[in-house]
Amino acid sequence: MNNNLIRCGWCEKDDLYRIYHDYEWGKPVYDDKIIFEFLVLESFQAGLSWHTILKKRENFRKALDGFDFHKITKYDDKKVEELMNNSGIIRNRMKILATINNAQKFIEVQNEFGSFSKYIWSFVGGKPIINHPKTLEEVPATTEVSDNLSKDLKKKGFKFLGSTVMYTHMQATGMVCDHLVDCYQKNSMNNFP
Predict the structure, then answer these.
(1) What does the entry list as the binding residues for Zn(2+) (predicted)?
(2) Is 68:62 a contact under the CB 8 Å cutoff?
(3) I want to staple 17 with a disulfide (CB 3.0 to 4.6 A). Which of 11, 74, 102, 192 is the partner?
(4) Range(s) of the domain holding residue 125
């Protein structure tokens, strides 16, 4: 990894953050399984730092059956207690229960729209919104799109996916590109259809 590259300032904490920034953040994701993984991780992140979640990501992957939403829908009280006793993840009963609920709702949306990806990307017209922030302060916490998306998800029965969480989801999955204008990743983002 080249640590001499100019990156968005938020990722310069350590290599874990830099790798995430360089290889995932802001890259368009259309695979339902990966979209679901990010929804889960971001719902657990509410009130915590993303760095904390990234450090626990592989523990979450093991604990949640590889983020398999079909398996997660079948989690019972025994599995919830097992997760509550797993020190490798965030042990928050409400968020664990929300993950099970959201897996069920995720499948309902897939059935309605053909894929969750088709549904969620419709909020940005099927292609990334490319912003041109010069500083981290210019990057919003929410937008009208994330507000609308969050409201629609809530209406569909999803939990722990407020507007701020959904904006971070949009950034993570490339629905919006908020790489700073001087970040080396910005040039690669300008080639989207």
Answers:
(1) 8, 21, 179, 183
(2) no
(3) 11
(4) 9-189
Beta bridge partners of 66: none
Give the domain CATH number at 173. Answer: 1.10.340.30
11 is an annotated ligand-binding site residue:
no
Provide φ and ψ at 31, rounded to 5°: -85, 120
CA distances from 44 to 121, 123, 179 (A): 22, 23, 23
Active site residue 20: yes
- Domain assignment present for 14: yes
CA–CA distances in Å: residue 85 to residues 68, 82, 89, 157, 187: 20, 5, 9, 27, 44
Among candidate residues 17, 25, 37, 42, the one labeled active-site is 42
Q: Is 179 annotated as a binding residue?
A: yes
The whole-model pTM stands at 0.93
| Annotated active-site residue in 50, 75, 121, 167 | 50
Is 42 labeled as catalytic in the residue annotation? yes
